[in-house]
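Submission sheet (multi-component)
Chains listed below:
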Amino acid sequence: MESLAIVHGEAADISKMMLDLGRRARASARTLALAPPEQKNAALIAAAEFLRGRKAELIEANAQDMAAARAKNLAPAMLDRLLLDDKRIESMAQSLVDIAALPDPVGRVLETFERPNGLRIDRVATPLGVIGVIFESRPNVTADAGALCLKAGNAAILRAGSESFHSSRLIHACLVEGLKAAGLPEDCIVLVPTRDRAAVGEMLAGLGGNVDVIVPRGGKSLVERVQTEARVPVFAHLEGIVHLYVDAEADLAKAEKILLNSKLRRTGICGATETLLVDRAGADRLLAPLVKMLLDAGCEVRGDVATQAIDARVKPASEQDWSTEYLDAIISAKLVDGVQGAIDHIETHGSHHTDGIVTENRAKAEKFQREVDSAIVIHNASTQFADGGEFGFGAEIGIATGRMHARGPVGVAQLTSFKYVVRGDGQTRA
Amino acid sequence: MESLAIVHGEAADISKMMLDLGRRARASARTLALAPPEQKNAALIAAAEFLRGRKAELIEANAQDMAAARAKNLAPAMLDRLLLDDKRIESMAQSLVDIAALPDPVGRVLETFERPNGLRIDRVATPLGVIGVIFESRPNVTADAGALCLKAGNAAILRAGSESFHSSRLIHACLVEGLKAAGLPEDCIVLVPTRDRAAVGEMLAGLGGNVDVIVPRGGKSLVERVQTEARVPVFAHLEGIVHLYVDAEADLAKAEKILLNSKLRRTGICGATETLLVDRAGADRLLAPLVKMLLDAGCEVRGDVATQAIDARVKPASEQDWSTEYLDAIISAKLVDGVQGAIDHIETHGSHHTDGIVTENRAKAEKFQREVDSAIVIHNASTQFADGGEFGFGAEIGIATGRMHARGPVGVAQLTSFKYVVRGDGQTRA
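Outcome: structure written.
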């Protein structure tokens, strides 16, 4: 299996190898674009079976990655993300089966219109082409990202994090077995066979026109490198500096329930709230119970002067706190002047990801949802609903914070483009 | 009027000036994004009145451009594109009024879905942000491009061709007067106030994050420069190497009518057919009448051996002809092996713009329309329908040949992004 060889070499070799990878993916993309849904689904289901059947090998390969990671003194949280066990392998396999069960996004008629001259025009979903996915340590992303691209008829070039090298290679081998079993070209999903970071640079440069879009999934430094270097379109996945604004006309019980879930259900996901904004006009009624609830639940609160006055456990917030994605049981909190003050704060400090408002006043909710320029704007519900699964998209490859093509949860439908199919009966243009 | 000053200077000055232009456009974009439809329309209608009222000045400014162009010995076709007269100024003004009359693309609910937990999710159209438009000599593009961006709630940074410098400045001044009359920030539409090509480089580099997308409108060399240098997303507008395939099961009379219109209605537009493909199985019946019709209509035909055998006037086609956009009364022609042969030829030589099939066999039409990977695939109608107006989009800023975000005619709706508006009643995530 040539694609699994570990390459160590000079920059020129890597450039040549990556170009070849790009060409192979491109050559497979056309076949895949025209593949019937049943064939793509058969590949996914077969790949799931290979994952299940090679569980012992997977755990062994993962043990190699884990040993190397321990030797490098990786943080416990990182080690946990890297780990594969029986349950995680089963869940990875099941997720391929779930993706197979999604409606096929290719060929959907998105819009139909008829012109006065009798021309009928359908806007029909098509694959995008070749998608480059660059991700970090979690090995299951190899399976998820490959499967989502495949489902949408796109060839995928996957660049796994170097920590998960051996695990990802074997997961990829299972995907390739699935492709072969279904009679699809094995280069529909290629894995970059080197840990050398130069390979990432080659992907960002576009592999000679053989990558149509790059999806980075990882921390701030990866996303920043991608945004600086990419010469091809990127589905930007910036951090989620998520705000929850509690308005003077909020129902307190509802606000408590929503805030607790938004901040603490899981702290490490991008839809977790990082900043609490409370309407100054409702501060007397709202601020103390909300802040004490968070503190009592074990959340560190970094507040402005008013918030500090609530409880001795509140720490002072620095300017930096208003632009920080903690991904931890920490929240920044401050008073703002009504919905306009909340909007101004969010537009200054936010990351255009997800922001929420709690209020019983519909007009204020509408103003907030209209004026906050974020991918997802939520009224009276937890910000943790920022998720493709929760939106009903099935799985997601990430949450896009840019405005081009995809925005918000990127599921299989967002991994497609479209074409116009025009049907006439001899019409000519005047 | 600072924005109209002609700047001659060092690269560092241009960089600084362009960054300032970008910042001003960005600062206006938020106000514009939230502007009600009536205000945007009022600006467009007022601008149309200013264009009409300053007709004499416009003709004078244009005379300066024309004199400079003549001194540079520009080709007659270029001079014609540059010329403004009473009729063209009126048509430019009317096009602003027509754009004002289009439905507002911002705030449209594109999709609505309700989740089992009762969350209601609307996908709502929003502006993209700041659009950079780089175009060549036709001065009316200044008005059209500025108006289309404005209608979709986007700030625009316009870089006009250097030949139309004085004309574009005055047209831009009228747009700015319109913005002011409607109470919108005048930096909603800014014009690059220098002919220096370094300014284009600055735009392609993104003006410090202050350009969200670049729309190039011009010839091959501009588009190539944009594609090589751009660090921001581009709505690619490649050439239209448009094919018309006439199948063995075509109705000859229909094929003649469609071919004549596809090639000769106007030869200089991107939807004009450049290559005729005829099904080998129908050659005896179809090739001679189609080729003779074109020759008799004054069209040069460059053909393969079979086509050359039809008529002494047919010239031999070189390999280069299959990849040439003539934009003239010239066509290349060859036999192919059925619909599959046509698809293979188009996928090898085409530019993914617009391609057509003439056949009475519905299954063959469907295969062609499914497998040809072009923005527009047309059955039994002229390829010259590849046009935003003909699609019912109103005006268009161009035809996108890329697959990201916009594809095919780019009208005001394609100049928008979207956000998800989620409405709940206290829902939290499990």
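Remark: Residues 11-33 of chain B form the longest helix (23 residues).
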